[in-house]
Design brief:
With 329 residues, the protein is an alpha/beta fold. Helix content is 37%, strand content 15%. The longest helix is centred in the middle third of the chain and has 16 residues, at 200-215.
Length: 329
């Protein structure tokens, strides 16, 4: 293309853009760059050089396309919260789940509450339309059965379990997901604290937790309120199951089965604020001898501890899972 007298490189480029269009009608689509708009406006004076006549050069000020908002990311977490008469505590727990930094599906299972816990959950769902909340009910009494019902509705990559009186930091699920991304890890178990994270009592508890989880890394040192799993591993283990283990300590028994699927992950920064309202747990716990036997037995022999040693002893003492429903507060 021949350069016209006095024509700059930009002017020559513009004339090339319009070359081949009908005389008298040139359209240039511009974005929102003011410099480009100014330059084209000056080139309008060169229209006789572009087409050899005085027909106008039309400039189309077409804005950037407006794209529809991106769809929210599908949650990778299902959180199962089974509750029974928890109206004094459940609001704070629900608020902590609503504040999580990762999207989640919150599965709330009413286990026959006679207070206004179910109404509080329904109100929470109505107040958080952007949060995926599923309201379920389990008519048969028993926390274990309610956990089973909630877990059956999970369809995400990961599953977490929550108590109705436990509060979780906003990065709880994010930390759990990081731990579960480590090779071979199928469960992330949180430290249960009963004071602020940096309080002296919490520091001492975290130190103790760090020691025992290194010495006994393949067993549970917390309750189901601090359990997070890869959902495929949870399913493969059989999950919470009253048919397999109809006794108390069903959280510890589940961890034994989970351990056959992979390793457990503990971390000092992975914690929750648990409730210490149970004043006397002797009616739902094992004896000192039973606990020592459990802790001292290597993982490979713990199936024997649960199913041959503890199961008949718990049955004889009437320590079925419904004992958890008995409260002294």
């Amino acid at each position: 293309m021949t350069t016209l007298p006095g024509e700059s490189a930009l002017q020559r480029g513009l004339r090339g853009e319009l070359r081949g269009r009908p005389p008298g009608f040139g359209t240039i689509a511009l974005g929102r760059a003011p410099g480009a708009i100014s330059a084209v406006a000056r080139l309008c004076d060169l229209r006789h050089k572009c087409f050899g006549n005085d027909e106008p050069l039309l400039i189309s000020m077409r804005p950037d396309p407006i794209l529809p908002p991106a769809a929210p990311a599908a949650p990778r977490w299902s959180v199962v919260l089974a509750y029974y008469n928890e109206s004094n505590f459940i609001t704070a727990t629900l608020a902590s789940w609503a504040a999580q930094t990762l999207p989640l599906r919150l599965i709330l299972v009413d286990n026959g509450s006679t207070d206004d816990s179910a109404a509080l959950c329904a109100a929470f769902k109505a107040a958080h339309p952007a949060l995926d909340v599923l309201l379920l009910a389990e008519a048969q009494p028993g926390h274990l059965l309610a956990l089973q019902t909630g877990a059956a509705a999970a369809d995400t990559d990961f599953i977490a379990f929550s108590d109705a009186d436990t509060v979780y930091p906003a990065d709880y699920l994010a930390r759990a997901q990081t731990l579960l991304a480590r090779p071979g890890k199928v469960a992330a178990l949180a430290i249960d604290l009963y004071a602020p994270y940096d309080a002296l009592s919490s520091r001492l508890r975290r130190l103790k937790f760090a020691i025992v989880t290194r010495l006994m890394a393949r067993q549970s040192h917390t309750g189901s309120y601090g359990y997070c799993f890869s959902l495929p591993a949870y399913r493969a283990s059989g999950g919470f199951c009253a048919r397999r283990w109809p006794f108390v300590l069903y959280d510890h028994e589940l961890i034994q089965r989970i351990g056959h699927q992979g390793r457990l992950a503990y971390d000092d920064g992975f914690w929750c604020r648990a409730s210490d309202r149970r004043g006397d747990s002797s009616g739902v716990r094992w004896t000192l001898i039973e606990r020592l036997f459990y802790h001292a037995t290597p993982f490979q022999l713990k199936d024997f501890v649960f199913y041959r040693y503890l199961a008949p002893r718990f049955a004889a003492r009437g320590l079925g899972f419904l004992k958890i429903r008995e409260r002294d507060w």
